[in-house]
Amino acid sequence: MGVTKYSGGSPDMSAYISGVNEFSPGADAATPATYHPDTEVRYRDALDNSQISDSFTADVQVIPRPASGSLVRIIPITAVVAVVVIGAGYYLLVKRKKN
């Protein structure tokens, strides 16, 4: 879920900021829900001075990890292990036939 923030002064000057941030919280993940933390944006102005925006509320949606995520990681590892085992078995079979 993206956050959209509008800011501006006069009708001739306005800014539109939009973005999506994704994080992997790890083992201590929050309960799946929508949270509303106070947020500030640090940026550099036209004179290259560091500035911090006014505080605003961002909607953060925590979603559960899909169950297939671990399966996707296991398949390539299993394939590599299978290739190594088959290669080692073939090597030993050829070596025994020569002796």
Structure description:
The structure is a single chain. The model is unreliable at 8-13 (pLDDT under 50). A two-stranded antiparallel ribbon has the order 1-2. It has a two-stranded antiparallel ribbon with strand order 3-8. Strands 4-7 form a two-stranded antiparallel sheet. A hairpin with a 5-residue loop joins strand 5 (42-44) and strand 6 (50-52). The chain has two domains: 1-65, no CATH class; 66-99. Helix content is 31%, strand content 28%. It has 99 residues and is an alpha+beta fold.
Task: Supply database-style keywords.
single chain; about 100 residues; alpha+beta
Largest sheet: 2 strands, antiparallel
Sheet with most strands: strand arrangement? 1-2
How many E-type strands? 8
Terminal CA distance? 65 Å
Mean pLDDT: 75
Q: What share of residues are in beta strands?
A: 25-35%
Q: Which H/E pattern describes the elements?
A: EEEEEEEEH
